[in-house]
Amino acid sequence: MAYKVGIVGVTGAVGQEILALLASRNFPVEELRPLASARSAGKTIEFGGKTWTIREATPESFEGLDFAIFSAGGSISKALAPEAAKRGCIVIDNSSAFRMDPNVPLVVPEINAHALKNHKGIIANPNCSTAITLMGLYPLHKAFGLKRFFASTYQAVSGTGAAAMEELKKQVVAWASGEELETGVYPYQIAFNLIPHVDSFLEDGYTKEEMKMLNEGRKILELPELVCTCTCVRVPVFRAHSISVDAEFEKPVSVEAARKAIAEFVGAEVQDDPANKVYPMPLFYQNKVKCGVGRIRKNTAFDNGLALWVCGDQLWKGAALNAIQIAEEMDRQGLLKK
Ligand SMILES: NC(=O)c1ccc[n+]([C@@H]2O[C@H](COP(=O)([O-])OP(=O)(O)OC[C@H]3O[C@@H](n4cnc5c(N)ncnc54)[C@H](OP(=O)(O)O)[C@@H]3O)[C@@H](O)[C@H]2O)c1
To answer: What is the C-alpha separation between 93 and 74, in angstroms, rounded?
Structure first.
């Protein structure tokens, strides 16, 4: 079974990764429809040994497609995803536009693939930091029953897109040659700095990004009572997010049992041998399918608690890879063909 596949935002940071992963994972593509803005219409891309012309994304551009992966921002998703679904093209959306919509499954296939069968044409891909954090937390939840957690994120600039990666590169070069550092994408210099501001601020002082960890975590884990607090920080790293997590569980915990649970979970791997300086870092988790979990220790702040550190490629597990894994799972469940 091969599919007619659309990619909205094909020229962007996530779009480029979707193209590469569809090829490297040999996803069965009969026809590719690369879509972006009018700026890119007419340009060409190579895929599957063929040259494909980029078209502007319009409602009509979804006619005859089996599914399309959207990575062009929330406003484009809001405008075009319903148009695509109306035309029988299933939408897998990387933006936050539909994540909390009760009619839209929010899916991490290793955790809640069962939710896909209830889709009504649109499936949402989770927030990158939330998906990566859950790769560490979900196996522990299965083992000990998650009650609450405290998270701090260290988010790479590629999380903001292609322009942000350019900005960090330029600032580092300017710094090295003693020139003025220009800002544009971020409110402040990001090189050699930390910005505790990801997405916009809410009345209660949290940012939208920080609330995604709670709201989306509850929906994916199907734990409506779960509590968490999160602080999200942009860091001068090009790729792969890291999250420090302090978690409290219903049942007594042990570090050995925690390592065993994570090692047996398909989405993650244990990188935890402090004595030999073995722990996950963004340096080692770029272009990796699995997320790494380390620094696992009994939490000194509360009983039945663990402290841990999770790293993962947010362009992959946080976006492109998770979206393609959703398509692969829907193919397996026979949910992609009309
Ligand atoms: N970056 C990440 O790690 C990450 C993780 C999770 C989710 N996401 C989400 O994925 C989406 C894309 O992020 P990104 O990082 O790939 O951004 P990006 O690098 O800035 O790329 C944006 C893409 O959107 C396209 N686009 C812009 N305006 C458009 C329009 N009017 N019609 C059609 N396409 C349009 C651009 O096409 P042109 O080149 O033609 O302008 C480009 O392909 C965002 O919703 C983001 O929240 C990103």
So the answer is: 9
